[in-house]
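WARN no homologs supplied; continuing
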Amino acid sequence: MWALWEDLRFSARSLRKHALLSTVVIATLTLGVGFSAGIFTLINAIYLRAKIDKDHDSFAEVYSVYTQDPTRPGRPDRTTLEDYLAFRDRAKSLGKLAAHAGIEAPLGDDDPAETRAQLVTSNFFSLYDVERPIMGRLLEPEDCSEARPVVVLSDRLWRDRFASDPHLIGKVIHFNGQPVTVVGVAPEFSEGGNHSKAWFPYTLETYLKLGANLLKPGEAAWLNVQGRLNPGFSHEEAGAELRLLASQQDRLHPGRNSTHIVTDGSWVQAPELRNRMIWIVAMIMGILTILILHMYERDHIAAREGRRAPAGVRPTAAQRPCSARPTNASCRRSSSIMSASRARGFRRVSTGPPSIPMRKSSRSSTRTPH
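OK structure emitted
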C-alpha cells in the first residue's frame, strides 16, 4: 500500500509539474475513446446488424440460388412465389415469413415523378412489429387473396403529399394510372432501410401493370423473403431446413437445382458482399502491416545511429554521430585526437616499459686499502 501511495503522489506531482501537457493528453484520450465508441456504434448500426427497430437477433433474411447446371451455380438473390408459399406453410424454424418486392411508379395524375413503393404480403407489417396504424387499418389476408386494389401510405407521404388530410381514408388515388383506395396510414418504421412510401398487396402486380411475375409462380424469382427465427432455432438450422424443403420443391421442376441461405439481415452477411468483405479486410490488414514495418525500420535505423529520432523529425548535424557527418570540423578534430592517442599507445607497447634510472650509492664501489 505504501508503494502505491508513493506512486500516486509521484503521479500527482508530475501532473502539476506538466499541467498543460497533462491536460492535452487527457483531453486527447477522452476524445479518442469517445470518437472510437461513436464510430463503432455507427458501423454496428449500419453494417453489423439488420436495419430494424428491435429484436435484431431473431431477424432472418432468405437468399435463393436457382440453376439448371449444378456445375455453374447462380448468384444468391430473390425467391419464387411458389417456394415462398411452401416455406411459409411448412417451415418450423421460421415464423412471420413475409415477402416483398420494390416498385416505382407515378402517384397521382399531376405528378410525373416516381414514388418508391412495395408489393408486400399481408403479414409484412407484423414482421417489423408495426401493430397500429396512424389512421385506418393495415393490410389484411383478404387484400392479397382477393387482389383488392388498396394501398397503405407512409406517414411522410401522407403529410407531404396530402397535407395530413384527416379524411383521406376511403378516397381513391391513382398509382401508375390505376385507381387504388387508401385504407390506412402506417407510422414510421425502419423497414430494412427501404424507405418506401406506400405498400400494396403483392397480388396487384399485374393490375398495376408492373410485370407478369405472378403468372410464373415457379419460375420467376422476384420476392425478397424475410422472417423471424422461432425460439430454439439458429440461422444455420433454418437454412438447413429450407434447403431440405427446396429439394422437395425441385422435384416439381425437373432439371432445376436450388439452394437457400439464411442470414441475420446485416450488410456484412449478404452473400453478394462476402467476397468483397474478404478483400476489404485483406487490404486493411496489408496497409496496417506496411505501416508497422515502416515504423520498425525507422526506429531500427535511429537506434543504429545511436539515438532514436522523433517521429517525423530528422536529426540535426549535431545530433548525428561522426560516422554520419565526416566533413564536420569538430569530428575531424576529434578523429585526429583519437588517432594521436592510439599512436602513443602503439609506441608504448612497441618499446616496452620505460627504464628506471639507477641511483648511485654513496659508498664507493672500490675497497680502500688499509
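The radius of gyration is 41 Å.
OK
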